[in-house]
Amino acid sequence: MLLLINSANCQVAGFAMATVGWILTTTSMGLVEWRVWYIENNALMPPGLVCVGMWKVCVYHHVSDHNKVTLCQRYSYRDPYLPLDIRVSQNLLLIASILGLLGRASIIFALRNAYLGILRENATFNPFVASGILNLASGICIAITVVWNYHSVMSEQGISFPPSLLIPFKPNTQEIGSAFLVACLAAFMMLLSGVIFLSHKFSTATQVHPQTSDT
């Protein structure tokens, strides 16, 4: 009985982690602070801040102590100036979001079957295992995006933005933004939830059943 209770608690915890991880994934997609560029005086633009996201770039100019001008431009998939890491990361985040959504649907289906007592361990399709695989794949996609973005910032790679944005190829300094941290947490949540649901199959298979002794 205790094993069943612990298994149910793990399932609920895995569902909560997958839900939070999926929300953080979609949130990181909309954030622009993946790379933060600090621009000092140069021939193209006055001192300011440039936030490079996966789908748009925003330029912040301080006109005075209390006034700030913001200019944002969304990318087009056909924009030739986008580097390879951003193009690939866009697709990876989209795939991660879809896989995470499918994983949550599979978890709900599995929890429903477990609640109704119709989940069969020897069935060909185990929704807990399917959800674990989907969540692991989603977490891997996010992790690749995170590592690639980290490498791009640490190696101080530049981007050839169009002249209309007046952004130099490289900033004076650049650092990792808050979106990176959100994506890191999302990857951790999705990977952990995947491990929990994959381990569900093995934990249920090793449950101790009453045995009769031969006399």
| Overall pLDDT level | 81
Query: Helices and strands: which structural class?
Result: alpha+beta
Number of helices: 4
Overall domain count: 1
Secondary-structure arrangement, i.e. CATH architecture: Up-down Bundle
Query: Within the CATH hierarchy, at the fold level, what is the topology?
Result: Butyryl-CoA Dehydrogenase, subunit A, domain 3
How is the main sheet built? 5 strands, antiparallel
- Compute the number of strand runs: 5
Round the Cα radius of gyration to an integer and report it: 23 Å
Shape: elongated
Can you characterise this structure?
Keywords: Cell junction, Cell membrane, Membrane, Tight junction, Transmembrane, Transmembrane helix. One of its GO terms (cellular component) is bicellular tight junction. It is a multi-pass membrane protein. GO terms for molecular function: structural molecule activity. It is found in: Cell junction, Tight junction; Cell membrane. The two termini are 27 Å apart. By secondary structure, the chain is of the alpha+beta class. A five-stranded antiparallel sheet has the order 4-3-2-1-5. It is 55% helix and 13% strand. It has one domain (10-201): Butyryl-CoA Dehydrogenase, subunit A, domain 3 (Up-down Bundle). The protein is elongated and about 70 Å long. Helix 1 runs antiparallel to helix 2 (84-116) and helix 2 (84-116) runs antiparallel to helix 3. Strand 1 and strand 2 form a beta hairpin. It has helices spanning 2-30, 84-116, 127-154, 178-205; strands at 35-39, 48-52, 56-62, 68-74, 173-176. The protein is built from four helices and five strands, in the order αββββααβα.
